[in-house]
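Entry for the shared binder. Reason: the reviewer on the internal report wants the predicted structure included alongside the sequence.
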Amino acid sequence: MSEREVTVVITVTSARSHLYAKEPLTLIHNSKRTTMLKSYHIIACLLVLWISGCQNQISENTVYLDASAPVQQRVYDLLSRMTLEEKVAQMCQYVGLEHMRKAEQDLSKEEMEKSDAQGFYPDLHSSDVEELVTKGLIGSFLHVVDVKEANYLQALAQKSRLKIPLLIGIDAIHGTALVDGATVYPTPIGLASTWDTALVKKMSVETAREMRATGAAWTFTPNVDVAREARWGRVGETFGEDPFLVAEMGVAMIEGLQNTTHPDSFNVIACAKHLIAGSESVNGLNGAPTDLSERTIREVFLPPYKAAVDAGVFSVMTAHNELNGIACHADEWMMTDVLRGELGFEGFIVSDWMDIERLATRHFVAENQTEACYQTVKAGMDMHMHGPDFLEAIVQLVKDGRLSEKRIDESVERLLEAKFRLGLFENPFVNEQETPDILFNKEHQNTALEAAQKSVVLLKNEQLLPLEKGKYKNIFVTGPNANNETLLGDWSAKQTGENIITVLEGLKNIDQAASFDFFPVGNNPKDVTVDHVKQAKIRASKSDLAIVVVGENSFRWDWSNKNCGENSGRSDISLAGLQQELVEAVYASGTPTIVILVNGRPLATGWIDEHIPAVLEAWEPGSFGGQAIAQILYGEVNPSGKLPISIPRSVGHQLCIYNHKPTHYFHKYVDDLSTPLYPFGHGLSYSTFVYQNLELSREKISADEELKVRVEVTNTSMTDGEEIVQLYLNDTYCPVTRPVKELKAFRRIHLNAGETQQITFTVTPEMLQYLDKDFKPTVDPGEFMVMVGGSSETNQLLSIPFVVK
């Protein structure tokens, strides 16, 4: 061969090239040597071409499509085939197409920025979103409430290069209630009032079943915020004020939802939220700053997250708020050091609604959206909820070297693992023919009714209840919540009418011999007028019995009028509007009166407690709330619910918690009692229970030994009933101040009339631990006190000391 220049040009479509690159990746080899280009140069170049081709070739034999291959092997195989853009796309979530179209009609761009309920993208049409899905540039959706839309979106995803299915999430907080026709269970505060973890797990299994039947595979629950602030609108979304009870209920919900029967499978994915402590903001408002000591964070707010992680929860959502000056969405200490490093969390972290953007627009800790994206991902965030302006920013940050592609891989591995463990690669679609048979089926209805029955708390009863059928011929019923869907609570859409039993309907169904005079006063507390109050007194005076149903309104579909639920904080926790005047007028008629509270937060009802002979706290009991309430009023069901949160006497009684420190009430209020109106753990029954013979297996133990606690509980009434036996501990003397009592165990038991049961609890070394000055778990020698009873109220508890050697 004569001397000449030899140039070999090989064009390669790289698996890691930019999707939008106009020029192909080109490898150029140039030689001016007089001899032939050595064959190994050509072979090497061809090998690069062959490898790249293999990366892009998708066949049935591809590892990540092999259902029999181990999950991690499938994850790594798929990850190796993905471009940077395709990776970051898995971290991107959008709202559903129909939700977007509706929001486009309802909101301006400025209103959308402030909204936490509706979202659309002013510069992005729904057809643009569809195209992004077909290009594999969206990994997740939320607010998809129709199975047909879910299947449509999954079909679009199947058109993408790698055919990665979508992860569709929904706020199935107490059933997948945002879907019309679904079973609506009591809201979490009501579920916590059952103190029945087995029941909560069962309803969660059913919720997961209805979710999958409508296309969702991920729910943003449980809310394991510890709720100690009654002004906060989202109390009803939580399990109350006690870290142990919150943890137990949260674990039951996680186990039921994820329902892991095999290490590589999920039914749906649960999400522990909101990391952390937004439930005790400085002013009781959602998203306001939280300023708490590290001790309070670790002793009160972190234990439910530890329990959730130990239970295998696979997603965690960060909080709207800042914590001690650090925006939670940029809190590397909490997300990475604590959640992953200390607690060992292995799932993925998702932002809350538009809160990455708010690092720049609300918290002002980031100069712009790109900087906000950098801060949150660096801190540990794995997915953006929701919309555009995330993918482009993260890709550019990687190209600029500020974020490594390895860091992106960490997030994507977790998200892909979730999709594999959900079985979405094998079957991303829902059989729409089966959906109607799963939603609101008889088994689920029975569970919802049982949960409602057990969630109602009888706060007060002066011999008026249970009612005798036929005794009261003319019954007056009124109140804004007597005949509406407020029973469903927050995070619910309007439901099919025949799927709901209101209080009025429940009463009519159970006492068909009575004549019910229903006086409508509107469906919202602020609808009650002065004329309603006057007329109610007149009509009540003509009846034998009066039932007034008051409380709050969590109608999500009537956002501007709701006064309870998400973003509905209140400066006053007494009855809103003229509801108090309505109750007083009915009482003044001289007719025996029952008050039923339907609400999502503790309400200060001191006057009602003082004057009304029978008061029920129904919370928001779901589809069959009206039936459950009527059954309890008439004694067909014996009330058994117990308060998971203390009810304060006024808004000024914060923090009204049972597990306060010894000096909490060192001085008393000069204008009112300092005690709660109703204490944590309180709840009456038509049965009477007597506790006696509290004893310990030993009087002295070592710090690493267990202790048996035994107590006898007797039903001394003529009525079968269920009691919730509660065990509390107190460390009498400790270098760090300890609460006056802490719930450590509970047991729900059934006792026939006259029956006695001996209940045994085991006190473990972990129950005796506290965090020392360096936040290390330790047990100090000295005296401890065991307290057992049916309420946290001291005079309702038997107590006995023991010593740790």
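Summary line for the report: The domain at 689-804 is CATH 2.60.40.10 (Immunoglobulin-like).
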